[in-house]
Amino acid sequence: MSSPSLTLPSQEQHPARRRLLEVLGALAIAATYIYLVLNQPADITGGPGSASALIALTGFLAGAVLLIVAVLPTLPASTLVLIPVALVLNIVLGQFVGSTLVPFYLDAIGTVLIAVLAGPAAGAATGALSSIVWSFFNPTVLPFAAGAALIGCLAGLAARYGLFRRFYLAPVAGFVTGIIAGVVSAPVAAFVFGGTSGVATGAIVSAFRAMGDTLLAAITKQALISDPMDKAIVFTIVAILVYALPRRSRQQFPFLRRHRVLAGNTADTEARSDAAAQAPAQDPAHDSSRKG
Amino acid sequence: MTASPAGSAPAQATRPRLSPLTWLAAAGSTAVITTAAASWPLSAAVVAACLGLSLAGGTARRVLPASAAVLVPLGLSLLVLHGLFFPEGRTVLAAWGPARITAEGLDFTGQRILLLAAVVMVLLLFSFTVSLPDLVAALSARGVQGRFAFVLASTLTLLPAIAERARRIREAQEARGLVVSRGLLSRAAAFRLQAVPLVLSLIEDAGTRAAALEARGLSSPGPRTSYREVPDSGVQRTARVVLVLAALAAVVLRLVQAGAGC
Q1: Which of A18, A173, A243, B39 would be A163's cystine partner, CB 3.0–4.6 Å?
Q2: Looking at the partner chain, which of B119, B192, B214 has a beta carbon nearest the beta carbon of A77?
Q3: Residue A103 located in a structural domain
Q4: What gap in Å lies between CA A177 and CA A150, rounded to an integer?
């Protein structure tokens, strides 16, 4: 599966154009966020459907779509077929948790799983696609596409730089990701919805509003309470899942081997069940030459 | 909400005469214009129109529960949030300690819920009315990559299948003696016992599917022939352009107003 197509050589048509689209997408998201934060105080009490809601929707969505257009054609087939699976995991688990009285979401397990297996670009595309496809039967997740893309990208970077090699580092990486993602998603919740979509998260926002905070400040504080814990749990679950994968499944993903994402030679408790299979393949270069 | 409405929705096309792209343009521009206008009579009109269209099209039994599943928690959350705590409110109707019901807060909540209801119902009406195979074919014919179409179609068809597999795994684990009690640790252990086999089998399946797709030329460039004829006409093409321009005009108008107001 990691071998190229037998019929035609895999081709990269316009690498510079793709890179430009990626940069433009990231810039659109960053510029929208900065504009919203700088412009917020005058606007929120001016009534619903304000200009800020439109800017948040347009900027974040355009950024997410640009990222998808840039990344999707470059993904290998083994990653592409995993994206629908990840989306279903996001949706099934997210719907389940969203309806309970817990101030968490757990709607990013599939996205983080792809990011760890296939890298930051695949993670970002999966996050953005997840929001767009999910919006087919829950349109309120559509504006969070940029935040979901950011989560996927950060999870991939954490995997790339070895934070999943030590089991205790995964929740830490999730915590930091949650802080960044929460801060970026808060303006969407504030300007587009005027609140949060869950009952439990809404109660936390109410508590901050009762102390006299502005809506954006209250929602940002709620996001800083919910998101880091949520993402720490998600990253831990993904670490458990990835370490439980048999070696044959892991071999499908060149990203895992190239960057030594997982601990191959440490006595990690989560790798215990896999230890016997891992023993002869400690050197990643040796490992890849043995493939097949 | 369950997975079944989403899975069964694309199977039927109740409006075969309109191109799915026209539906998409209509739903999208309605959502944008409603958000930009932010006037409650327009929002109410859109909600009423959606109700009428879904009743006429026979999709009401799927659109209404799906809308309720989204809107009821959101509405409750907004009602608690702004109904009880709205520090910017001046006209106090009732107060208990820190909680104050203000007229401004209730007004804000009502308008926001109505607006969100309009947007959510328009988009759900679209996704439950449009024929998904037609939408995929129309997008592919317009140069949208087959990869996006694959992800969209694959997700919506996988949803019921995966929900079914999760149910079978739970039953198998229960047959082996899995008992979920109320404790957090027990729940976490039960989650792990069900999630690990599910994810492993899904990744295994995906590997097989990747090899099959690769063998059928998924990554190869070049033109593709679609055997699916999507209805389209010059009138619809013009209508789409007008709809998109109207949405853009509404956004620009709103931004100019906001700029002038500051």
Answers
A1: A173
A2: B214
A3: yes
A4: 9
Contact at CB, A92 and B87, closer than 8 angstroms: no
Contacts of A246 in chain B (CB under 8 A): 200
Both structure tokens of A214 = 């502005």
Residues B31, B113, single domain; the answer is yes
The answer to whether residues A257 and A157 touch, using CB atoms and an 8 Å cutoff, is: no
Q: Spell out the residues 6+ positions from residue B6 whose beta carbon is closer than 8 angstroms to its own.
A: A136, A137, B127, B156, B159
User: In this structure, what CATH number is given to the domain that contains residue A234?
Assistant: 1.10.1760.20
Containing structural domain, residue A162: 78-287
Chain A residues 12-31 with CB within 8 Å of chain B: 13
Q: Do B35 and B126 belong to one domain? A: yes
Domain of residue B179 covers 146-218
Q: How far apart are CA B170 and CA B176, in angstroms?
A: 10
H-assigned helices in chain B: 4-8, 20-37, 40-57, 60-78, 103-129, 132-141, 146-175, 184-215, 234-261
- The 10s digit of each residue's pLDDT in B64-109 is 888 888 888 888 888 887 777 776 666 777 767 667 777 777 888 8
| Residues B99 and B66 reside in one and the same domain | yes
User: Is B262 in contact with A42 (Cβ distance < 8 A)?
Assistant: yes
Over residues B153-206, the pLDDT tens digits come to 888 888 888 888 888 988 898 898 877 776 677 777 777 888 888 888 888 888
